[in-house]
Prior knowledge:
5-stranded mixed sheet; 42% helix; alpha/beta; Rossmann fold
Amino acid sequence: MPPELPDLNRIAVLGATGSIGTSCLDVIAAHGSRLKAVALTAHRSWEVLAAQCHQHKPHFAVISDPSVRASIGGNAFPSGTEVRFGPEGLEEIASHPEIDTVVCGIVGAAGLRGAWAAVESGKRVAIANKETLVVAGPLVMHLAAKTGACLIPVDSEHSAIFQGLQAGRRRDLKRIVLTASGGPFRGWSKERQEREVTVERALAHPTWQMGPKITVDSATMMNKSLEVIEARWLFDLEIEQIAVTIHPQSIVHSFVEFLDGSVLAQLSPPDMKLPIQYALTYPERWSGTSPTMNWTQPCQLEFLPADFDAFPALKLGFEVAKQGGTCGAVLNAANEVAVGRFLEGKLKFTEIAQACRDILIGHNFDASPTLTDLLRLDGWARQEMQQWKSLQSI
Length: 394
């Protein structure tokens, strides 16, 4: 049975100034009688965080980068908000007794610390940070089973799978199919990508408005690769039970297929507020704030096979999900640095997946790592990626 929803769901939004965080605050504001933002966090964007605090009046605000403390004026935050500094503040807030639900919206492996604390404390965890499960999926799910934490996905694809699974018995599941928009380079060959991709083109996603890191990941299809790994652990699947299809309209957010051949899909216009709200209100459904489908207008839905040759990052996801162990942590860390180097003009677009594969091959694989092992390899992979050079450029 799903946990009962409290009369007032007290929420901590980790990464409040990002795209997930701001959408989450829109949902909270729309349901102010039943949802309350009790804690908001940011890394360095204290001006935006301060404005959010004046609007939502949380009890706590956390700025994880303490170096900006001297820049903040004494009256920047409202008097009723206690401001904390440093990464340890994320853990304190995520495990605080005044919090019912923790929204994990911090991009990258940096979000693992707060997510782990929330799971360890047995909270309802709205997991928008896919890297948490990519890096430490088996450890996180084992911890959740131990503490009673309820993990509810916020990613539109994983939310669609989560919703679809409510319609049947888990033992009757055949497979899941994750949909992908294909990004701005859908249909492009690898050779065309090498010739024509620029940073500006990679950041021009056709359907979703996201931060630069996730947008580049969508362009390489590494984002879908990470979602394959996340789904493997979140839904306890074999790799053969996961497939990917290209769906340019981004209306069908994913499929669940049962043994009898029935396929259930979740459809809605592309807007993150819907899966965010479902994660906050599950198992209930409330009036939504997102756009809805207009069935009086013509609508065409396309589904195309994924091109693993043109987008080798996607193939990496299936390989890493199958092997498990330390591979997820290494892939995630290497990719984060590779994307940063691409955005800085120091790495070619097509070199991102190539470099990640090289780092994966070069690491000391461990099938049953501890969290300490994973964090150590995270640092190792980042350092290796900073030094990586293509053999073609040597």
